[in-house]
Structures are given as structure tokens and as C-alpha cells.
Description:
binds zinc ion; binds adenosine-5'-diphosphate; Rossmann fold; 6-stranded mixed sheet; 5 domains; single chain; GIY-YIG endonuclease
Amino acid sequence: MIELAAVVVDHVTAATNKLFTYSVPPELRGSVRCGTQVKVPFNRRWLTGYVTPEPAPEAPGIKPIAEIIAQDLFTVRTWALARWISEYYLCHLVEAVRLIIPPGASGRFRVPRLPQVVELNCAREVASSLSSELEPRAPAQARLLQVAAAAAQGLTKTELLRRAQAGSSSLDALLKRGVLTLRELPLGTASCTLLPTGVAPELNRDQAQAVEQITAALEAEQTETFLLHGVTGSGKTEVYLQALAASARSGRGGIVLVPEIALTPQTVRRFQSRFGSQVAVLHSALAVRERYAEWQRIQRGEARVVVGARSAVFAPVNKLGLIILDEEHEPAYKQDESPRYAARDVALKRAAEENAVVVLGSATPSVTSYYRAQSGNYRLLTLPERVASQSLPQVTVVDMRAELAAGNRSIFSRDLLESLRVALLRGEQAILFLNRRGYSTFILCRHCGQVATCPHCEIALTWHKGGRRLVCHHCGYSERPYQVCPRCGSNLVREFGCGTERVEAEATRLLPGARVLRLDADTTAERGAHDKILTAFGRREANILVGTQMVAKGLDFARVSVVGIISADLSLHLPDPYAWERTFQLLEQVAGRAGRGKAAGRVILQTYNPEHPSIVCAGRHDYEGFYRIELERRRRRRYPPFVEVVLLRAIGPAEGVLQRVLGFVVERIGKRVGQGIEGPAPSPFLKQGDNYRWQVVFKGDNLASLKEDLGVLLTELKPECKRQRVRLSVDVDPLSYL
Ligand code: ADP
Ligand code: ZN
Ligand code: ZN
């Protein structure tokens, strides 16, 4: 029983990371504990707060907790994780706490309600006779009964009303009558009443060895990290499934993280078919209430296998055996707003606290992870071959300079066009990848050189033919297109460069019999659209799938024999230390979509830089080769894994102020890192919206004390920054300098 509680208030206060002491009134003494959500007075208003397990120092003027809102939002263990995140990533404590509490619980005086389903509360025959009886005078009620009786399982209120075309008053009447009833039901179970049906295939030798080692580590109940390096299609997922089964046998749960865009129903079904309703799914496409329902099933121990995106690393699995990160190299595992945590490092931290095992899987491990495996921090498991003796697709690197010289001005090389023709004739499918959406990259006046530019960000606008808008890919600004140059009045305004819309149009134009689907942010804006497109492609309603990096990840279509990479160069020349690595990974991933069935796969990789290491190595599926070159470059240039990096960015309307603020920070704490300071300098993307961006990069062998000083300094600078309209943001272990 505690009399004083150390509380985190749910509000980003100026004094960051501070715990506030509240007294616990006698009538609440038995109930207030670590993880209790409470309502507390704060500066003459009410705030939500969270009771922590930390000691609560006596202080003058302590006020009492007003009431309890909810219990068990976190445990002592997850609290420790939040603490660590706020210290390591220099974020506000409450931002970290919001990661570990249930979805939708932050800042409210009420936890979200579970979704309700309407169910029949009488025999079907009764419902049917009552329905005929009601038909003449209350047809809406009659329809409701029919629909409810016909449904295999309870429908949500909205769904039922929609299907029966009825209003809620009709529903209320039936509920009152007692023939229908409302039930709170975790949607996760509703969506998956499956029994496990999938049978585990017999593992090949490499897979078996991997599972064996993971199982041994699980049995030892000691934390251990494995790096599972397996080429695309080598059966990594099967290793995950059997490792999860091993964890379950020892009575412990598991978390599987996949990148958000790979979290397709295709992926989820693989886990559900093995573990049935034991699986909980967490991703951002779910409504908050649905996520909350899943969260509760996990907390109650009903779901023992969690499949989810980045934030699922915080899932309240209570006896955790295993955390798996599929495609561990994915930048999506790092949150790109505060708190800028990396799910991989949180997973390692969490596993260490809970004696759990971590499996990092990838065909193209991040250079950092592979280095850690080479230096003995992780144990390396290798699956060098595809299962069922399929071979990796053969890659042809096409030099687009030579195409141009030969008079081919099309976006398709002759080789690609020919391969596509043949594939379509054979009834096979193809994937075309280009990491840029829209129709053309920019529009330019051939008379005066005027380029349509975002008035805020000062970068070229992309022409979206479908939506008939010129769009800024940086801030979302858009405007109407024009045919006549606004500067010189000439009508020589032309489109340059190429995006997925244009690839789609060209494929349709050049290939007889092409039925093209496009998968990018524009075609998947609507809920469920992503799945719809992939299902249609899987059913062979189309034979070509064009897309951005959405087509690169996780897709497993057996009939895809050709993958065309329209331009491998897009990401290669970005002013970013990770551009080479990112490009290599992306190319290897896309290539891996080909030849997963019986037909051999072929990849046509188009580039203007055929000698670049990222491209040469991707062309040979040579991960090791790329790793060696990239590691040497990192050693020379002092990039991770050889140093730690903290990026401090200042954002605001006046460049001079940004430079001054950053200069001041460098002066105050720069001595700590000696030589390892780059900047202050303009960020590669100088403007976003109407704000400028400047940055300074700190590098060093160990930045712990620098971070400590920086944290203090940032708090100190807050009022001044507010006055000067500058926002400072810290990125620890940044994955991009852009
Ligand atoms: P990865 O995750 O490495 O890309 P997958 O796990 O998706 O590879 O495996 C590729 C395909 O091979 C899948 O269709 C999977 O069901 C199948 N598969 C995996 N392991 C085996 C095995 N041991 N025997 C037969 N088929 C397997
Ligand atoms: Zn002009
Ligand atoms: Zn813009």
C-alpha cells in the first residue's frame, strides 16, 4: 500500500522527464499501484497521470489523486523500458509512456470501450417467424432480424445496420425486446475464429539447424540474439513459425515484428493458420478500439503470438520468450517522429530484461547487424539457398546509356520489353518497380527553363495525371497543372522523368494483352485497397503489377517470372550516408519477388550507373561482397557501426536563427566529442513547408555523456527557442541525414 505516488502526467511539460508526487487518499490506498491510470490536479486543471514504481519524494503542497481511471496499463518491466527509451532517445518521459500503455488510453479520462457486436439471442426459427410477423408494420426490424440470423457470427452495429439498411432506432427496439443482444467482443477473435490448420513442413538441413539453436537458447532461458541471414525465399518464415512453437511449448509467448507495408493479410494468415486464435494482430490500419481489444487479449494471455508493426514490440506479453524482427534492416523499424526509437534496439533491451531470445531475420541484414554478428555479439544463422531447390533469379544489368545511344528513348529497355512480352505470352506475371509515384518527376518549360516548384519547399512538383494535380511530395501542397508557361507564356511546357503512373500507362500502351494494376500510396489511400489490389493480382486478374517499394517487400506470387526495375538509381545519389546500403537492400528485395514458383525468375535492372557497388553486388546477389565494400567505406568515413551518431536538427522560419541556436549548442557541449562534429549546416532537404531546416551531427565512440548534457541544455533552451520560433529535434542513431 502506498501513500505517496510518483506520477507521470500526460502532458508534455516544459520541465521534461519529471515525476510529480501525489498523495493517495485512504479510500484508494489498496488500489493505486504501478500502472494505475489516475486523474490528478495539475496547475489548476485536471490531467491524466500514470503511477510509476519509482520512489515518491516528500514535497511541500502535495495534492491528492482525484480518482482511478484504469488499472494495469503497464508493468514494472515495461516501465523500465519506457524509462530507458526516454533516456536513450532523449524524448519526454510521457512520450515513452504512451508507447507502453494500451492504444487509445493516453490523455483521456476513460479507456476505450471494446467494440460491440450484435448477436442473435434466440433460436434461428424464432427469429425467422418473428421476422415475418414484423414484416408488414416494421420492415426495418424484420430485415435486421433476417440479416442477424443469416450471419455466421456477430456483426458490428454499423455493419449490421448497413447490411439491413436499417436505422438504430429499429435496432434498439429489437435489443429491448431481447431477441438481439450486444456483446463486447475483441475483434481480433471475431476476425480469426480459425483453428490452426497449417501443417509444418519438414525443415531442410539449414532450417533445422537454425531452429535447433534458437530452441536451445530458449530452453536455457538466457537472453541471446540471432541474426538469421537467409536469401529471399529461403524459408525464414518457417524458421520463425517453428521457433514460436518452441517458445509456446516452454509456456512463453512471442512477438513477430514485420514492416508495416509487409503486414498484409497474406503474412498474417501464415501465422494464423499455424497458431489460430492464439494470434493477435497489431497494426496502424486497425481502429484504436480494435487495437485495444487485441492488446487486452494479449494482456490476459489469450493471445500468445503477436504479429505486428514496429510498436508491437511493446505488446504486453507477460511471459515473453521470443522477439522476431523480420526484414530487420527495414528503416520502418525506426519511428520518424519523437520518440525516435528503433524497434530493433528496444527489442534487444526488452529481451535482455526478460531473458528472452531475439531473432533478427533478413536477406540483406543491415551492415550494423552483420558487423555485430561477425564480431560475436550476435550468433549468425545462415540459409544460403532457396527451399525446394529454386534458384535465385538471374539478374541482367542494363546500361541505359547504351539504350539511349542505340536510339531507344523509351523507359523500357529492349531487353525488359522483350522479357515482358514473353512472360505475358506464357501466361506468367511480372512486377515493375519504380520508387517514385506520380506521372512525371517535374514539368519544365523548354523555352525559358521554368520548372513548376512548391512555393513552400522550393522543390519540383510532381505531375499526377490521375488526380490532375501538381503535387509536392515533401509537404503535400498541390496546384492545378498548366499548359502555358506562367513565366514566358510559351506553350512548350513538357513532362520530364517518370513515376509509377507513367510506367503503368507505358506498359499498357506497349504490351498487347497487358492488364496492369498499380500499387503505391495513391492507389492504396483507401482502407482495404492494398489488400484488394494484391488479391486481384494473386487471382491473376492482372498480369503486371506496377509499384513503389510497396511491391518490394514480402510478396510471394508463384507466377511472377519477371521483375523489371525501371530505375535503380533513384536512391543512389541522395546525400545520405546510408544511400548505398538502402539501394542495395531495395534492389535485392525487389529481385527476390521473381521466380518463387516453378518458372525460373528473371530480373532486368535498368541503371545509368552499372559500375556502382550497390548495383554490381545486387546484380550478383552478392551480399558479402557489398558488406565488405560498405564496411570499409564506413570505417574510412567514420559512420556506424564504428561510431555513435546523434543528429540535432533545428527547424524554423529564419535560417539565421537556426544557425545561431545550433552554433550555441555546439559551443556549449561540442568539446565532449572533439573532432566529431559536422555542422551546423543546412539539411539536405533545406525546406519543409515554410520552415527551414538546419542540422548538426555529433559522432563519437560513446555519446552517453554528450546526450546527458544535451538533454539538460535542450530543456534550458526551450523558452528561448519558443520565443524565436525554433523547434529542436534530436535523432539518436539516425537512419538518414535527409
Ligand atoms: P522467406 O521468408 O525466407 O522469404 P518463406 O518462409 O516465405 O521464405 O518460404 C518460401 C516458400 O517456401 C514458402 O511458400 C514456404 O511455405 C515454403 N517453405 C519454407 N520452408 C519449407 C520447407 N522446409 N519445405 C517445403 N516448403 C517450405
Ligand atoms: Zn517558359
Ligand atoms: Zn512543399
